[in-house]
Amino acid sequence: MPVYAQASAANDGAAITKSDSTVVAFDAVYVGGTGDLVIKTPLGTTLTFSAVPAGAIIPCRCNRVMAATTATLLVGLSY
After folding, report:
1. Over the chain (79 residues), what is each successive 10-residue block's mean pLDDT?
2. Angle at the Cα of 36 (from 7 to 29), degrees rounded to 5?
3. Using the 8-state DSSP alphabet, how is residue 68 labeled?
4. Which segments within the chain are labelled E, that is strand?
5. How far is CA 75 from the centre of its chain?
6. Which residues, at least 6 apart from 4, have a Cβ–Cβ distance to it below 8 Å?
């Protein structure tokens, strides 16, 4: 039997400024303009999501959105 996840609405959000040193706390990132999204997870792993399309929401906790990110119009979401 499949397990279905219920979608939930974000409680808060903020525009993201890409930085290798600024610490943030987001549960997901909305990408308004296509490109690569490079994040650092709370455990310190750097992840690169390549060629993220405009309008995508990447549901991954992050504590940094790295300067190497080429995607634009980013919004961090907290659930």
Report:
1. 62 96 96 98 97 97 97 97
2. 30
3. T
4. 12-15, 28-33, 35-40, 46-52, 56-58, 64-65, 72-78
5. 8
6. none
Task: Give yes or no for a contact between 6 and 54, defined as CB atoms under 8 angstroms apart.
Answer: no
Which residues 6+ apart lie within 8 Å of 68 measured at CB? Answer: 36, 38, 48
- What is the pLDDT, as a whole number, of residue 8? 78
Tokens, residue 68: 């190497």
Point out which residues pair with 38 in neighbouring strands: 48
Answer whether 10's CB lies under 8 Å from 77's CB.
Answer: yes
